[in-house]
């Protein structure tokens, strides 16, 4: 099964995402903090990473930057989960090294399609 | 000298003797030649007779006249005519022989003719000794032999020429063996020379006489010459002495320069001129050059080099300055003559003179100075002079004259006809007349002439001329001057103009003006003054003005002149005014005047005065009227002033009241400003509140929507129909709430100006496709058809906000339409700079009265017969705000109630003038 890393501190959100991804056939690696996310990313080499931006401690953008620094991780698609209508979100997310983003509130019915669209688009 | 004369006489005698001898010889040759010619003539004659007789074959003559030729041995020699006359044949030889005999007998000194031959028939015809030599010469080819010999004791010229055998000769001589062309012998002619010698002797006498005369004349001339020579030798010495004296008298001296040694010798007299003792004089050319002035050295060197050495020629009048003993410079004119050449033909010795020309130089200098002075004087005075010798028709002009007329001074002056073209026709005519009179009567002239082609500097000239007379008073020419008087003419014209102008000014003045001399006597008076006083100008000029019209005061008392302001101004040299006085008219009436007297000061001295006066009659009357008017006015002003004072007081009260009000207002304004500040704070607080609240609200909504959605889709297990319905209600409400929150945030951001605008380039068609996508399920459920007619066109604007507007419009269309179709069109607006997104539905439509409320926030159009359609109440408000403030376009609507609506979203293809 393909491994997917979800970095999300909100349990409810994590659960929603898990429903959607597992239904699509992915195995979920969950991290509740940035540090944990970096460790899992380096160790497990997931096929993609869903990254919540609002994290306690190091936030999602910093975590993304750190993941991208490690060798072999620069090819992993990272999709950010952002709040709606945060000023300048999109630019900041892309600058940190994410391939795209999905907006909160996430729609479990369509999130898989959104993620696949972003991964397709960022393929070279 | 005597010896020379002897030599001369000897030589002369020899020459004459030689000439005589020569002439004698010439004469002899001449005589002999003449004799020879005579002999030749006789010879030819003889031969001619012989030829004739030969040609006719002989001639028969009567025998009784001549004996027959004994040597003619022919049968037909003697004949007898029919009448018995005896004839004998005479052949050429016999005929000539007979003729020769006759000739010989004619004279004591006859011409001797002989026929000579070696083979002779007649023995007399045998050659003598001389003839025998001649015959031998003929045999050797000679054609003639002549000589002077002695025959019969007398000198004879003998000529001997051969006889050539012809056909006729053979008749007699053929038997002797001669052939044609042979020399048979010759005819010898001897001319006696006695007569020739007599002529010669006479000629010789003449020659001797002539040459003796020549000798005498020549010797005489020689004697004269030689005796003269002797005297001139003595004279030479005398003249040398005189020359030396003359040289000294002419301030001249000699010098001698030996070019081979370089030594130069100056005569002591030159040293005396310069104050040098003979031993102090320069002894070489180089030493001499030390005394020559620096400025003359080059010239001197040049002359010596180029003339003496190069072209070997003499030089003359080379002027050089020589330093005298006392340090002064002397002027000398030096000339040199080459008197000796060396073996190679180069100059070896030069002799010359030094002439003291100091005086001439001084005179030259003075002359030049005086010429310069005259030239300068003429230049300064702009006067040119000329001179005309009418007899020789010679014209001369001074330099300034050339300059004045602009002619070239290096050329001779033009003739009169040419010169007169310089003037205008009128001037030239006047000049002609003046010149004519001057030449005829000697009347001098002075006329102003105008130039035909004037320049700024020269336009008018004053021409003067006068006749030149010889001792007898006869006019033989003219001389004269021309002066440039252009400036004077201009001044005169200016003066005339000024005078006229002054007169005009004086006469146009309304005031009376007159001038007086120092004694108060009137010099001039203008028209106004004359009119006022009633006098004519001639009556007043020269009269004392005070006596004439200022003698009495208005009250009838006498006005002493000493008190008169005019008098005072003349005495005190300052302007004096008289007011309230009177002047008297001619008719003894008076009028009030004011007058001003201004002294005329020339070189600090008062020479007169100018008086300006005015008739004050009218003025006084006017002044009285003005005074009355003033009084009335003053009274009125006083009344008015009192009124104004009262009004002013009232105004002051009002002002005070107004000030209070303004102060109150200021206070209120300050309070309002404070309140406004507070409100602004509140507004900021509100925005902050809305932003954070909406964020916090959304987090729980995330769960509500997410989980209800999963559950409803039975991801967690099957649901009953009722459960499905209930959870569906939760999901719808959550979504509604989310939309509401999002709209509220957008509205809040727009209103606080914080909405982020993200401009990007995209295709209009794609946006429309994307906007339609979420509604596919609803449309299908409602059974509505969709028509899309969109163009592909690039847009540069905020894509997300455009999409939001379109979603809202399409959402409304779907919501309010139950049957029919929704059509979406995208096309360029008329301007070509904007795209129009037109969303058309066949829904319920909007009542006209509701159209105006349509875009207000939280307005829900109440529709009878219809349930309230779910919505936030902010959709159109927000969409229009976005269209206007973010997309820089607008949303317009038109609708027919019950039939449908059409919303048109207008979006510029490029925001803020960028490229589409």
Rg on CA atoms of chain A, Å:
13 Å
Strand residue content of chain B: 15-25%
Secondary-structure-based class of chain A equals alpha/beta
Q: Helix proportion of residues of chain B, in percent? A: 40-55%
Strand content of chain A: 15-25%
Low-confidence stretches of chain A: none
List the quaternary state of the chains: heterodimer
Strand order of the largest sheet of chain B: 9-8-12-11-10
The ordered H/E elements of chain A are EHEHEHEHEH
Query: Reading side by side through the largest sheet of chain A, how are the strands ordered?
Result: 2-1-3-4-5
Sheet with most strands of chain A? 5 strands, parallel
Termini Cα gap of chain B: 142 Å
- Cα-atom radius of gyration of chain B: 81 Å
Number of DSSP helices of chain A?
Answer: 5
Task: Kindly state the number of beta strands of chain A.
Answer: 5
**Quick one: overall form of chain A?**
globular
Total of DSSP H or I helical runs spanning 4+ residues of chain B: 24
- Roughly how many Å apart are the termini of chain A? 24 Å
Structural features, described:
Helices cover about 45% and strands about 20% of the residues of chain A. By secondary structure, chain A is an alpha/beta fold. In chain A, helix 2 packs parallel to helix 3. In chain A, strands 2-1-3-4-5 form a 5-stranded parallel beta sheet, with helices on both faces. Chain B is of the alpha+beta class and about 900 residues long. In chain B, about 50% of the residues lie in helices and about 25% in strands. In chain B, the strands form 7 sheets. A 5-stranded antiparallel beta sheet of chain B has the order 9-8-12-11-10, sandwiched between helices. A 5-stranded antiparallel beta sheet of chain B has the order 14-13-17-16-15, with helices on both faces. In chain B, strands 19-18-22-21-20 form a 5-stranded antiparallel beta sheet. In chain B, strand 2 and strand 3 form a beta hairpin. In chain B, helix 18 packs antiparallel against helix 19, helix 19 runs parallel beside helix 24 and helix 20 packs across helix 22. The longest helix of chain B is centred in the C-terminal third of the chain and has 96 residues. Chain B is elongated.
